[in-house]
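ok so i was messing around last nite and threw this chain in just to see what happens. nothing serious, just curious
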Amino acid sequence: MLLGANPIELSYRDHSPLSFPVVRGDQRMTNLLLDHGADIHKRTSGPEGTSIVDVAVHGGHLDALAIIVRHRAWWNSNKAQRNDYVIRALSSAARTTTFELGATLNYLLEGRGADPNAVYEALDAMPLHLSILFGQREAVRVLMRHRADVHWKLTIRGSLPFENMTPLEYAIGSRSAFPRTHQGHAREIAS
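result:
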């Protein structure tokens, strides 16, 4: 197997074997490692660390992300794992260009990907709520294209700033509170 290398183990510096091919854009090596069982979900530095999908998402390595989400390693993961990457992508929205975030979400949501209506209980929010909060219009568009439900009322527990609001209610309410940041979200969602 790959000259004795283990595609699953982290290196002594806590890097995934996929780290360098993903960052350097080596599509052939990325495919080779995935075909030989490289773990896309293994986190560096413990359970709260970074996976190779996080590296692709946060680093804007869209070519690598496209390879990962089309590979059987992605489809063999469970829905919760795939949904988690959407929240991680939205959480890094402040550091991401609008185009990159839109393209990233599109890859994560395609096919049997993540659920655009997944509820993230730790935040009492859905991806649409977070997209509106961070002022990411392109993310709102992509989520809507993937059938995010603007009328889904969260009934977990009232947490600020969402307070059991549907994404549409939040967009309307936040527009008056943050006119520049959220201007147009309610109009965009309603259309």
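not much to say yet. The chain has a mean pLDDT of 81.
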